[in-house]
Design brief:
Largest sheet: 5 strands, antiparallel
Number of strands: 19
Radius of gyration: 20 Å
Helix content: 25-40%
Order of helices and strands: HEEHEEEEEHEHEEEEHEEHEHEEEHEH
Structural class: alpha+beta
Shape: globular
Number of helices: 9
Bound molecules: flavin-adenine dinucleotide
Strand order of the largest sheet: 6-7-13-11-12
Distance between the termini: 27 Å
């Protein structure tokens, strides 16, 4: 399927635009699950000023969503109407600042942030070695691992709102809680400042190596997946409830609950996004039946289903019929 081409309108309205715009760009190529339809427009701004210019000029009724490295995303089969922003090289700088601090652009991979911190003798950011997203995604999801999370190391973040205004957000304004950020959904993070503590590069690198080894042994990191599918409910683990509900290895179409870590869904046989979402909803229904707990999706689902197809819980009912 494809959407009406918005590029002529964008070209007319934005003669000074420097970034790249692509119509009907396949998102499956740039997300971990490798499923789903196109973005009506995929925009890669040249830098923050270009992004702000684009947002000011873009008609308000056209929806805008940003993606990072696509490691926590399920793009539905009908694609994403409006504009998908994907930051590029203009947001990839990492700079060491005095006081054991690092300033990083939103597109910097978390693992690169961890590496830069180690090289500079800045301890406290090694946990990012195991998170396969970008700084922007880490801010939005309050990414965390190995007992630490983003809110413990963040000083401030910079963001552009839907009207093109720039905001500096101190940690408190981010309202970071477990896999959640309180900043409006359509604000785009462009940069963040992180605080570490003094450390020995060799010791930090060793810690990062341990993180990497743990991941390799315990998570299906080489599969087409979206990481943890559901948030851990208070006082419990999503994977334990999924296991108790007998869902380890459960399959819908080309999608399967990972045998290695049952809070991960994997696309191992050319799944559609609907297969993955239906599998997730089936797991939620079974967990609710066996334990009374309603799991909440951690994975962000974007866009529309194929014409006439259901989404969310309605997928389970459609499957049962
Ligand atoms: C194998 C594997 C292991 C994982 N392990 C962990 C883990 O240990 N801990 C953990 O927390 N997560 C984990 N994840 C999930 C994922 O890596 C994190 O949520 C990560 O922070 C997502 O970053 P991303 O750049 O891929 O964002 P995306 O998946 O592209 O997007 C996720 C959300 O962030 C938003 N977003 C992205 N960039 C920006 C931006 N610049 N401004 C505003 N919003 C933005 C998107 O709109 C979307 O809502 C794992 C994923 C995989 C595949």
């Amino acid at each position: 399927m494809s959407f009406p081409d918005l590029l002529p309108e964008i070209a007319t309205r934005m003669p000074q635009l420097r970034g790249r715009v692509i119509a009907n760009a396949m998102l499956a190529d740039i997300t971990w699950f490798r499923v789903g339809g196109p973005a009506q427009v995929l925009f890669t701004p040249a830098d923050e000023a270009d992004l702000a210019y684009f947002l000011v000029q873009l008609p308000r009724e056209i929806p805008v969503v940003v993606i990072g490295l696509g490691s926590n995303l399920l793009v539905r089969d009908g694609g994403v109407p409006g504009v998908v922003v994907r930051l590029g090289r203009g947001f990839s700088r990492v700079e060491v600042e005095p006081g054991h601090r690092l300033r990083a652009g939103a597109v910097v991979p978390d693992a690169k942030l961890a590496r830069a911190a180690a090289d500079a003798g800045i301890a406290g950011l090694a946990f990012y070695r195991g998170v396969p997203g970008s700084v922007g995604g880490a801010l939005r999801m309050n990414a965390g691992a190995h007992g630490r999370e983003t809110r413990e190391v963040l000083v401030e973040a910079r963001a552009v709102d839907r009207d093109g205004n720039i905001h500096m957000l101190p940690l408190e304004a981010m309202q970071l809680t477990y896999r959640h950020c309180g900043v409006p959904d359509d604000w785009i993070f462009t940069e963040a400042l992180f605080q570490g503590s003094p450390g020995e590069p060799a010791a930090i690198l060793e810690q990062m190596e341990e993180v990497a080894e743990y991941r390799e042994a315990n998570q299906p990191i080489r599969e087409r997946t979206g990481g943890s599918t559901f948030k851990n409910p208070p006082g419990s683990s999503a994977w334990k409830l999924i296991d108790q509900a007998g869902c380890r290895g459960l399959r819908v179409g080309g999608a399967k609950v990972s045998d290695m870590h049952c809070n991960f869904l994997i696309n191992d046989r050319n799944a559609t996004a609907e297969d993955v979402e239906r599998l997730g909803e089936t797991v939620r229904a079974r967990v609710r039946e066996t334990s009374g707990v309603t799991l909440q999706w951690e994975i962000i689902r974007l866009g529309l289903p194929k014409a006439g197809r259901p989404t969310g819980e309605a997928l389970v009912e459609a499957f049962a019929q």
